[in-house]
Write a structure and sequence with these properties.
The protein has 258 residues and is of the alpha/beta class. It has twelve helices and eight strands. Bound molecules: 3-methylmercaptopropionate-CoA (MMPA-CoA).
């Protein structure tokens, strides 16, 4: 399928998906969300990690407010729109392939909902975050009440939404929205390097890490521990493990160091 909302290319085992509507600050219209769902449901077979980036000086300005204004949607229509966003971003979070977001500029409203579906977020110094829905009389609908609240805590999300204030990149690091902070213009390079490192892990380990941990978070402790043991039983006994552990036993691996 040919996509109009983003470009995609392969860099070995890493796919780089780049939002490409900078003239609208990469705001997400219905077509963009549908294309994201389609791509992340069926990434190329050889892909082991994905970088999600954006052209222009802003990663994503959230819901396409012009489309929303023009369409004058009914409650039922907008509920379907939200469920489309949930499906698309669930494909990112639970598709089994690690996704590293490379961020710059505005990560606002639905842009933050998109970024929070990624597993690792790298931002440069221009990066900032906001949930300005209140000023438009609207509410988050793309998963923020679950994904953003889990990262920054519900209390911080409530305060950001009530005041509409901007959270800068330093606070983004402190609150967990950014895993890495780079100099201006360097987020993509760092994200691609991380994605290549991640792509070297065993695929089944990565699948369990990106999907299992968030799924267990939804469960009771008893169910979570049982699920963890099932996942570990599957992953720990996969054929790849013997080869990787032989390297350790025969002292061919690099030691961890701080
Ligand atoms: C847009 C959008 C958009 C820009 N939908 N067209 N999101 C917001 O509240 C963000 C609203 N946007 C902004 O605050 C600013 O545009 C930015 C800070 C992101 C960027 O500022 P700047 O000065 O670089 O660009 P600009 O001049 O404001 O915008 C450039 C163009 O992009 C302009 O169109 P033009 O035809 O006049 O050139 C803008 O109208 C257009 N544009 N943002 C549509 N969001 C599932 S629910 C999710 C809830 C939400 O996401 S609420 C939306 C939150």
């Amino acid at each position: 399928m040919t996509y109009v909302s983003f470009e995609s290319r392969l860099d070995g085992p890493v796919a780089i998906v780049t939002l490409n509507r900078p003239e609208r600050r990469n705001a997400l219209d219905e077509q963009a969300v549908g294309e994201i769902e389609d791509y992340f449901s069926r990434p190329p077979k050889e892909v082991r990690a994905i970088v999600l980036a954006a052209n222009g000086s802003h990663f994503c300005a959230g819901l396409d407010l012009k489309e929303h204004y023009a369409k004058e949607r009914s409650p039922a229509e907008f509920m379907r729109v939200c469920q489309g966003w949930h499906r698309a971003f669930d494909r990112i979070q639970h598709g089994g392939i690690p996704v590293v977001a490379a961020l710059q500029g505005a990560i606002v409203g639905g842009g933050l909902e998109l970024a929070s579906a990624a597993h690792v977020r790298v931002g440069d110094r221009s990066t900032y975050f906001a949930l300005p829905e209140g000023q438009w009389g609207i509410f988050t609908g793309g998963g923020a009440t679950v994904r953003v609240a889990r990262i920054i805590t519900p209390n911080r999300m409530i305060e950001m939404m009530l005041t509409g204030r901007v959270m800068d990149c330093e606070e983004g690091v402190r609150t967990g929205l950014l895993n890495y902070l780079t100099p201006a213009g360097a987020a993509l390079e760092k994200a691609v390097a991380l994605a290549h490192k991640i792509a070297g892990n065993a695929p089944l380990s990565n699948y369990s890490i990106v999907s299992g941990i968030n799924k267990v978070w939804d469960m009771s402790a008893t169910d979570g521990l049982f699920t963890e043991s099932l996942l570990a039983a599957l992953v720990q006994t996969s054929p790849e493990v013997q080869g990787r552990l032989r390297d350790f036993v025969e002292k061919r691996t690099e030691k961890l160091s701080a």
